[in-house]
Design brief:
Length: 391
């Protein structure tokens, strides 16, 4: 898009429903995940692990597929179909009246999110002017961060009041409301003409620095975020901190990440924060946060680590997606966004797995330092000077 109209007024009205779609997938995933342990009675950690993994597993497999479909038929119908599917999966759990159906419902929600999440990202890129991609993706990431933050809290409130039926029913209603909002305000965005793509062409595009660099940065930042949310409370408890303080630290992390993204997007659009140095710097901040949490005892280490991880995540996310949008042919945005989201999901799963394995073999501090070392390697690789304009 060549015009330079800012994302305000009518254009903002078109994009805000897409932000809400990002909120739906984040809120839906985390509001349920936070209550699954109590729902299963902590009877089987294997069962709990499977229920937690089935949502992300569906997304990992299906996001590139639905992204390619969005390129073929246009992202708007894929967005609508995904939101409708999310509502149907959520309502289906309530109507089934069978507690054992939660796994099937989670899979259905994950498959639906795999459709509307990359479609929403492609629509943000298509509807926002090129000169406002940083701000647009900063807002999208902030709304997702809000969903991650509010999900466990509001999910717990809904479960306390009316059990999982009320939570799933609320999610169904939320998805329908966002669908109606999008249907009213998101314009039709027709698919663009595409040249025939061979498997070799796809491989070249997904192994080019313009894709690998931001995707690796997004995966690393998501790994740090997931580890911060999951393991900072454990580190705090090991230092004698209660759940109130450790919960506050997680909230500070999530709030910092959410608040940073629109600001970083504005800096990027103004030409004051280049993509590649910014992504490398954001990951470096996350590395520092992990090391502080590992080495500095007490509440100081936990809070400083939380702020640094949230800061780094908030820098990387809008820059990563804006860089992807800028380096991707518009007719392939859906496929690219879907594939990049897979990288984020792998970071979301791989970071905690690495830290958990190292903590089980040695100490939690070593686990946090181990992830910091991996992210530092990414900083070195990502921060190398690009060899071409597309990189």
């Amino acid at each position: 898009m060549s015009d330079t109209e800012p994302v305000t007024g009518r254009r903002a009205g078109q994009i805000f429903p897409l932000y809400a779609a990002g909120f739906v997938t984040a809120f839906g995933a985390h509001s349920i995940a936070a209550g699954l342990g109590a729902y299963t009675g902590f009877a089987s950690l294997l069962t709990l692990g499977l229920l937690l993994a089935v949502y992300d597993g569906a997304e990992i497999v299906l996001k590139p597929v639905f992204g390619a479909v969005a390129d073929r038929i246009g992202p708007r119908p894929v967005l609508f179909g995904g939101l409708l599917g999310f509502a149907a999966a959520s309502a289906g759990f309530v109507l089934a009246g069978d507690p054992a159906a939660v796994g099937l419902a989670r899979f259905g929600q994950g498959a639906a999110a795999a459709a509307f999440s990359p479609a929403a990202g492609a629509l943000v890129a298509r509807l926002a002017p090129d000169s406002r991609h940083g701000r647009a993706f900063g807002g999208y990431g902030a709304w997702k961060g809000l969903g991650y933050t509010l999900g466990p809290v509001l999910g717990g409130v809904l479960i306390t009041i009316g059990g999982f039926d009320l939570l799933f029913g609320t999610l169904a209603g939320l998805a329908v409301a966002v669908l109606a909002w999008a249907a009213l305000f998101v314009p039709k965005v027709p698919p663009l003409p595409r040249a025939r793509q061979t498997l070799l062409d796809l491989t070249r595009r997904l192994t080019a620095p313009g894709f690998l660099r931001p995707t690796a940065a997004l995966a690393g930042a998501t790994a740090a975020l997931a580890v911060g949310v999951g393991f900072l409370p454990v580190a705090g408890a090991a230092n004698g901190l209660g759940p109130l303080l450790t919960g506050a630290a997680v909230s500070v992390l999530a709030a910092t990440a959410a608040l940073m993204q629109p600001w970083v997007g504005r800096l990027r659009d103004a030409g004051r924060l280049p993509d590649v140095p910014g992504m490398a710097g954001g990951l470096a901040a996350a590395v520092a946060g992990l090391l502080v949490a590992a080495l500095v005892p007490g509440i100081l280490g936990i809070l400083v680590g939380a702020v640094a991880i949230g800061f780094g995540t908030g820098v990387v996310t809008p820059l990563g997606f804006a860089h992807l949008a800028a380096s991707t042919p518009r007719e392939r945005l859906g496929q690219t966004m879907g594939s990049a989201e897979v990288g984020r999901e792998l970071g979301d799963a791989g970071g905690p797995l690495l830290v958990g394995a190292l903590a089980a073999a040695a100490t939690l501090g070593l686990g946090l330092a181990g992830l910091a070392l991996v992210l530092f390697a990414l900083v070195v690789v990502i921060g190398r000077e690009p060899k071409s304009p597309d990189s």
